[in-house]
Specification:
Helix content is about 45%, strand content about 15%. The chain is an alpha/beta fold and about 260 residues long. The chain has a seven-stranded parallel sheet with strand order 3-2-1-4-5-6-7, with helices on both faces. Helix 1 packs across helix 8, helix 3 runs parallel beside helix 4 and helix 4 runs parallel beside helix 5. The longest helix is centred in the middle third of the chain and has 28 residues.
């Protein structure tokens, strides 16, 4: 390949997605970052000169189409798609979840991955192969009380990953899912605060419950996720496809959500 490979990572102006983008920049990729937060996107572009950006909501199919048109016009190829964009969804008993909140969670966490993947696949095939990495969750391995929309999407994501690995393998496209545990940062802090309020506990008590889910009693770092994504897309991961890879210190159970 005469030019550096190209990767697109969604929901990546901050948090895990930004760390993933930074890792691929260091790895020599030309990187396209998308997000719904214009101010965060601008800060990201200033911090990583040379990347390209799109302001896009992955739940909006037309916005996704415009984003991929931009990538195609700028680079003429795509080698890696990281489907990172996602939202936590409501924290509530199923009978208290509003349909609009369910629909929005599914729209971002599942439909958005489909919208991006369907546009990425022809470009990956034209590049002679590549990788798709779906950022799922260890919630895809267990039930997750009070988080029904989120959990349903993450389980569906694994089915999509397995199916696409079978469908795209003959074209040299690898598809994997990364399933982190609780990742340090503002997003999990918000989940903890909402869960604490719902169950009448302190955020510190809920944080300790989350840590107890892991054999290693830890929270994951965004760098752990980014490094795995890069490995899966590298030559070292050339035979890895169709896998749901836990990065969670070995989650034993989510039953203590009910403590």
């Amino acid at each position: 390949m005469s030019e550096s490979p190209v990767m697109l990572v969604t929901g990546s102006a901050s948090g895990i997605g930004r760390v993933i983008a930074e890792r691929f920049v260091r790895g020599g990729y030309r990187v396209h970052v998308s997000d719904v937060d214009g101010a965060a996107l601008q800060r990201c572009a200033e911090a990583m000169p040379g990347i390209s950006t799109s302001l896009a909501d992955v739940a909006d199919v037309e916005a996704v189409n415009a984003m991929f048109d931009e990538v195609d016009a700028r680079y003429g190829r795509l080698d890696v798609l990281v489907n990172n964009a996602g939202i936590s969804g409501p924290t509530a008993a199923v009978e208290d979840i509003q349909p609009a909140d369910w629909d929005r969670t599914v729209a971002v966490d599942l439909n958005g991955q489909f919208y991006c993947t369907r546009r990425a696949v022809p470009m990956l095939k034209a590049s002679g192969g590549g990788s798709i990495v779906n950022i799922a969750s260890n919630a895809a391995f267990f039930g997750f009380p009070l988080r029904a929309p989120y959990t349903a999407c993450k389980w569906a994501m694994i089915g999509l990953t397995k199916t696409l690995a079978m469908e795209l393998g003959p074209f040299g496209v690898r598809v994997n899912a990364i399933c982190p545990g609780s990742v340090e940062g503002p997003r999990i802090d918000g989940v903890i605060e909402r869960d604490a309020a719902k169950r009448g506990k302190s955020p510190a008590e809920i944080r300790e419950l989350y840590a107890r889910q892991s054999s290693m009693r830890l929270f994951v770092k965004a760098d752990d996720v980014a490094n795995m994504a890069f490995f899966l897309c590298s030559s070292e991961g050339a035979t890895i496809s169709g896998q749901a890879i836990g990065i969670d210190g070995h989650t034993e159970s989510l039953s203590n959500w009910l403590d």
